[in-house]
Amino acid sequence: MSTTTYTVKGMTCGHCVSSVREEVGEVPGVTGVEVDLTTGLVTVSGQGPVSDEAVRAAVRTAGYEVADPA
């Protein structure tokens, strides 16, 4: 099982959370998505490796951006 956490910029409400959760949840291999609106953290779980670019693309499709690591 793999777990990766991303920081997503621009989420401001429950609808934002739902949109991100839905889009990322459709990425092949994803088995769970946890979204924390307050911190902007999105934790993605999978049975095996999940494509980083696919997760980032799903976040963009939802209308948001993944922050680059500092």
Molecular structure report:
This protein has 70 residues and is an alpha+beta fold. It is 31% helix and 33% strand. It contains 2 helices and 4 strands; from the N terminus they run E-H-E-E-H-E. It has helices spanning 14-25, 52-61; strands at residues 2-9, 30-36, 41-46, 65-66. Strands 2-3-1-4 form a 4-stranded antiparallel β-sheet, covered by helices on one side. A hairpin with a 4-residue loop joins strand 2 (30-36) and strand 3. The protein is globular and about 30 Å long. The N and C termini lie far apart (26 Å). The mean pLDDT is 95.
Q: How would you describe the shape?
A: globular
Strand order of the largest sheet: 2-3-1-4
Helix content: 25-40%
Alpha carbon gap, first and last residue: 26 Å
Radius of gyration: 11 Å
Element order: H for helix, E for strand:
EHEEHE
- Main sheet specs: 4 strands, antiparallel
User: Approximately what portion of the residues adopt beta-strand conformation?
Assistant: 25-35%
Tally of alpha and pi helices: 2
Give the structural class: alpha+beta
Q: Give the total of beta strands.
A: 4
The poorly predicted ranges are none
Short descriptors:
70 residues, alpha+beta, 4-stranded antiparallel sheet, 2 helices, 33% strand, globular
